[in-house]
Amino acid sequence: MATTITDITITQDNLYEGSSIIPIHSPVVYIAEVTYSGDAPDYVNVQIIDESIFLVGTYRAIYLDDQSATVRRFAFIANDAIKSLMGDFEDVEQLSETLVERPDIKTRYLIRFIHPDFITIYDTATGDFAHGAAQFGSYPNLTHVYSNSNQKFYGLKDDYCYVYFYASGIATTVSITDNGVLKGTFATPNAGYYAYKTLCDTNKTVNFDDSHSSYDKTVKIVDECSEGRYLKWLDNDGYYRFYPFNKFYETQLSAELIGTANKFITNILTDQTNRENIGSDVDKIESLTATNVDSEALDIFSSIYASPRVLARISNDKWVQVTLTGDGISRRRKSTGGKIDIQITYPEYFNIKMI
Questions:
Q1: Residue 330 forms beta bridges with which residues?
Q2: What secondary structure does DSSP assign to 160-227, as a single string?
Q3: Coil, helix or strand for 143?
Q4: Is the fold of 3-96+105-141 the same as that of 148-223?
Q5: pLDDT for the residue 283
Q6: What is the Cα–Cα distance from 104 to 192, expressed in whole angstroms?
Q7: CATH 1.20.1600.10, domain 148-223, yes or no
Q8: How many CB atoms lie within 10 A of CB 272?
Q9: C-alpha distances out from residue 218 to 180, 182, 207, 243, Å
């Protein structure tokens, strides 16, 4: 008996509370119900279509279960497919008190379940796929980013940090008030992530008003000596976070011998050795400490351990990528504060090698 598909309906589109921001670094599954007569279908196709309505890829949804004798559900695991279409993104330089769009964090695609043979039978969901991650027990959606919840951002006193704003696309401008002072009206032509660079001169509120809604974000200063270390990292929301460590850091160079080369001996009276060192691979490692860290900062800082981008500032405007190790975070039961101890390893420490 032949298979006749009469309807396709997406029943899990991963949209929650009005938000379409879907993190691609955790599982994202779309589910569609397929109504049919005759033999049950083995599969349906899934198309990924970009904003210009260009077909970028066709996949097969897999069988999930049967809802009835004429309704079968299929699932499409989207995160890896979408991730392969999105590039990496890095931090960008921007001037103080400016708002800059970060378009590489998010890309919009259409997910279309479609009949394998008849292109007129389909259903489509739209997603704003973002470099982010959600955890078990939470929606596969960054609803708090979309709603611009009052998140807290930390920075070194008298230095800079970013405060992030998500533009829904309803308004094309946003007015920013920084610690009660209007800094201007900035263009937000596209829906997506925007970063505002602010001076962390005092604990303060940064307000974003797009004429439809008003959102407050909190900036909290950390009063550490400027001679300490300043780190920034990419968190699970797609934000670059900042946190300073005190000046009592310890630096060490860890060397590992590459190998030796035999040396011809002509006279043991005058020759110095029969083996010469070729050189060593050297790592520069620093042990950093932050104390009196409030509980919210501890929660935010925990995202650094899974971050693909951790950077340390080595001069006023120069940052280098580092690797982080150490269990790091400790809390005191009867206090709101805690302590962070970590080690960072810098990029290769260049030295002379006899090869």
A1: 339
A2: EEEEEEEE-SS-SEEEEEETTEEEEEEE--SSEEEEEEEE-SSSEEEEEE-SS-EEEEEEEEE---TT
A3: helix
A4: yes
A5: 78
A6: 10
A7: no
A8: 8
A9: 12, 16, 9, 15
Residue 156 DSSP SS3: strand
Phi-psi region of 179 (alpha: psi -120 to 50; beta: other; left: phi over 0): left
Q: Are 282 and 352 in contact (CB under 8 A)?
A: no
pTM of the full structure: 0.84
SS3 272: coil
Q: Out of 2.70.98, 2.60.40, 2.160.10, 3.40.50, select the CATH number for domain 3-96+105-141.
A: 2.60.40
Burial 71-109 (b: 16+ CB within 10 A, else e): ebbbbbebbebbeeebeebeeeeeeebebbbbebbbbeb
CA distance linking residue 177 with residue 146, whole number of Å? 20
pLDDT at 259 (0 to 100): 67
- Token pair for 296: 């919210």
d(CA 73, CA 69): 11
Q: Which residues of the chain have pLDDT under 50?
A: 334
